[in-house]
Amino acid sequence: MAWFRSTTIRGVTARDDSVLELLPMVFAAPGEALARAEEVLGTDPSPLHASVAHQVIGIWQRDFGDTRRALAHLRRARDLAARAESAEREADVLATLGVALVHAGRTRAGLAAFERGVARGSGHTRARVLYRRAYVWWVLGRHGEALEDVRRAIPVLRQVEDVIWTARALTLRATVHLALGSVERADADFTAAEALWDTTGQEHDKADAVESRGLAAFRSGDVPAALRLLDEAAERYAKLGTPTFMLTIRRCEVLMAAGLATEALAEADGAVAALDGIGGQSTRKAELLLVAARAARLAGEPQTALARAAVAVRLFAGQRRTWYETHARLVLIEARVATGRGSGRLVADAAAVAERLAAFGAPAAPEASLLAGRIALDLGWTADAERHLAVAARSRHGGPPLARMTGWAAQALRARAAGSPRGVLEACRRGLDVLDDHRMTLGASELRARATAQGAELAALAQRASLVSGGPRRLLGWSERWRATVLSAPPTRPPADPVLQTAMTAFRELAARAEEARTDGGRPAPALEREQRRLEREIRSRTLHMRGEAPGDGDRFDVGRLLRRLGDEVRLVELAVLDGRVHVLLCGRGRVRRFEAGLLAEAEVEAEHVQAGLRRLAHPGAEARLPLVEAAGARLQRLLLGPAAAHLGSGPVVVVPPGRLHRVPWALLPALRDRVLSVSPSASSWLRARDTAPPPGGRQVLVRGPGLASGGAEVPGLSERYAGRRTPGDAPAGKEHRDPSGARERGEAVAAGGGESPHRERDGTGRRGSTRQGHAHVPGAAAVRGATVVLEGADARVPRVLRELDGAALAHIAAHGTFRADSPLFSSLRMADGPLIVHDFERLDRSPYRIILPCCDTARFASVGADELLGLVTALLPLGTAGVVACTAPVNDAAVVPLMLALHKGLDAGLSLAEALRDARAALPGDAVHQATGWAFSAFGAA
């Protein structure tokens, strides 16, 4: 932070100016200031000049290096100032020393140094000392004292026209206002400070101002702006070569609010290790440990949270930082509750923390009251619970979105304790409305998905209340209220950002080179992979900066409309999970019925067994496992459908599973095996897909990427099939597509060589060019056959592929697929020039109406947030795609070819994807490899 930095002292001679200039230089050009200060000490300087040089080195070490060295230099600077008989110089050094002592955890000694500094200084110098003591009060969490000292300092600094220190004081006051929840006052001070910084050359202070604006954006609830500003501040600090521990703390807070707790934990732990490595500030270490504890709790790691919070409490107590110690105790209690340690003692502890936080004016006070009330409710202490929850519920009427959601959660728990299901549902509705408004300010689909985790408790409370009071229809409505909400509106289109475009192109090229190196030599290329990861971080970071454009979803789910669209033949099976048990909501023939099935945990284990079985069946010679896989499918049916399996009728079935069951091969279940079957992330998503009209023109796009074991052998046959439908005036069809046995690109030829797994593998990325307007013949391996475009070899490059996919009626993309569990939106399909990633698809004006992805793992998702899915298929559905056929498991490459040819034969006959896939499975040979291949594919959507 830049708020405690020294500059020139009034009342010195002109010849001293060159040395005194080093003080403001520390945060304009830190490295240069340090070097020049060390040069001064090598020239046998006067005590006054030596004092300045030691102070400069002490400031640098205090903020960017070793605190112990900082204290040694600052004590030497103090002694030399006394020898120089300069009271003003001594006062200034004492203030710098006071800050260093407090950051070293020696609070009493630090405050004593400030007392001497205030007594020794006068006028302008005393105002600077008061400012720095105000900063220390802020570090200690004593906000009243901080505001009082800065109130005394600002008029004097303004009177002498000290622009730099006035701007610092305004920035500090704004930050204190933010800590107390006064966002408007903070914004006014930040604006005034920024205007002053624009008149100076203090680059570090300017970076600090950007960081502060990021903090203000976060406190006002604008997460994308906060991430953008903090990243900009990081870039500015990087140019100055200075560490950024305070920035890390703030960035971690924003990441947690965005649902990225695991990333926040990694960043905080990394910063703690770096701080320990340089012997850095004890105060910053304690703050980083507090952030890490909060992140660990949100990431579902209560033991890690306990460990981090306990050390933070101890450090804060030793530093006499009661404000921060109290916040750390709140996290400690939350972690203990998460480990199942609820007790009357914890109720009392949480209540005491809530009282202290309220006395401090801390915005976290309602969270502590909610915690106390929740623990009391679990113990059956209804009177105590009501008292604490009533206090927490007051926050529902104002403040940032997450604070209001805390209030509505408390109100819902109050209603539940009072036995009012209606009150529970109303509070949950209001709280989730707040979350919807917040979520739609986020432009990135990943942030929208992860933000839903904030509403998980409200949604669960509503589902339980609706089960008790409203029957199956109401339970269905609430199940839909929070299921796959990220699909309710298209993601914000990535901006026309040249830096982002350059990063995407460089990422694709590096990924292709890294893949080529692995294929050629069988060894990874560490340098390429490191640069690839750096570019991934840059792309993701800039994508997270996008602000949402769509308003809240006003098209609420209507059970009656769903039933009308299903009619008498189609059944929709929505699986809701309450308290770990699967509830089957069977919709059709004008009614919704509920059946209880098995435990979700048991179904997840069985689904993993099925996945392992399908993986083995992809290899010839594993036929003996077929009965075992079929038996596992029967067990899955009992766990997931229960008695509802006997009531499915004989017509088509739509399955809407929870996110944690996304890898179930539904066609393996006996009751679903021989019927028209489709899967949808939500009933709302199925309705939107059903209402999506195909684009005019009916263009088909067939893409064959490099390195497939079979060479994408179905593509030439499909090309011939669709070529027969060309319109009059088209060029005659010849052998314009490249024969799979002919010359191929180097990457294809190598990857298709011996030793390949029989599985269709995974990989990809790309970027969109302009929307295609015409379909004239393009020379090379791409062939336009009537309304069909074939892209293979050198033409299967990302920009060209995206141009052709935009607005197509049907796309068949035979390419290696890679699912990235660590970063789902970097899941990809490998093209000739590198990976085509999910971020690329989001640049399409309209993704293809139907998409067929015949390669392994293209239907894999990451389950995030409350019940959201991130992956290739879910990225396509909000962008205009009404139906996808994709694979949930590794499959035999050769066995896929007849399945795909049969699938397209059905589509050519006018069938839907689900109908064509059912018939294609039936047409396969009866051996284990082909049967397993058919079960591994699912039809998603309603096209």
TrEMBL record:
Coiled-coil regions listed in the entry: none
Location of the region described as Disordered in the Swiss-Prot/TrEMBL record: 683-778
Species of origin: Streptomyces hyderabadensis
Lineage: Bacteria, Bacillati, Actinomycetota, Actinomycetes, Kitasatosporales
InterPro entries: CHAT_dom, TPR-like_helical_dom_sf, TPR_rpt
Ranges of Basic and acidic residues composition bias in the record: 733-748, 757-766
Protein name (Swiss-Prot/TrEMBL): CHAT domain-containing protein
CHAT domain boundaries: 631-937
Pfam families, alphabetized: CHAT
